[in-house]
Design a protein that fits this description.
The protein is α/β, with parallel strands linked by helices. It is built from 8 helices and 8 strands. The chain has helices at residues 15-29, 44-52, 64-75, 91-97, 111-130, 149-159, 175-180, 194-211; strands at residues 2-6, 34-38, 58-60, 80-84, 102-107, 136-144, 165-166, 171-172.
Length: 212
């Protein structure tokens, strides 16, 4: 009965790819009973999960009032409820953060994306004040390039953000992750993608530790 919401101010930072891989990992590898809510109008996560043919219920809900009513009800049915939010901080996103235990913020190491992540963290902190510290928040770098100055600067910036845990694991830019959606699979279903699978495994374990 833990709601985990993927959140950011903008699209294209990896919310859907993280949500789809997280859902697969929880269901297939960790053997957890889960449910997914796709609150993004683009429907990328629900489309991805349909291609995976998992036995995981996925509800497409974008209306804020419906989210506020349905998430508390749906979370009672499972161990983990994963929400993929829209790429904005509108009312639908606020509704999910008002019910979530964990907010996960993916960010790519670029100036614009780091600025949007800081805005998302600010919103999370406002909700934390109203909810006695919930949702707990974690932020991680997605599509990082190894041994680059930009990556080091992004890590330093994230470590200074208040009210949010900077996850240690980086999801590095890998072609296997980029190709997984079109191939209707995840990195666990692709040859030569062991490094990407291990990156996700470590990140997702950090998320679950934050949820305890």
């Amino acid at each position: 009965m833990t709601v985990i919401a993927m959140t950011n101010l903008k699209g294209g930072v990896g919310k859907s790819s993280t949500a789809a891989h997280f859902a697969y990992w929880l269901s297939i590898i960790k053997k957890k009973k889960i449910l997914v809510v796709d609150a993004d109008g683009q429907g990328s996560t629900s489309t991805w999960l349909e291609g995976l043919d998992l036995n995981v219920p996925c509800h497409r809900i974008t209306d804020p009032d419906t989210l506020a009513e349905e998430i508390p009800r749906l979370e009672e049915e499972v161990e983990y409820l994963v929400v993929d939010n829209a790429g904005n901080l509108g009312e639908a996103t606020r509704c999910t953060l008002l019910t979530a235990k964990i907010a996960v913020i993916p960010v790519t190491p670029s100036g614009l994306d780091l600025m949007s992540a800081a805005t998302a963290v600010k919103m999370v902190r406002q909700i934390q004040k109203a909810r006695s510290g919930l949702p707990k928040a974690g932020i991680f770098i997605n599509r990082g390039m190894k041994n680059t100055r930009l990556l080091r600067e992004a890590q330093e910036l994230l470590s200074q953000l208040e009210g949010v845990t900077a996850f240690k694991q980086i999801i590095y830019q890998r072609q296997a992750i980029a190709d997984a959606f079109l191939q209707k699979t995840t990195v666990w279903g692709m040859k030569g993608a062991q490094d990407g699978a291990e990156d996700y495994h470590k990140l997702f374990n950090e998320i679950l530790r934050l949820a305890k």
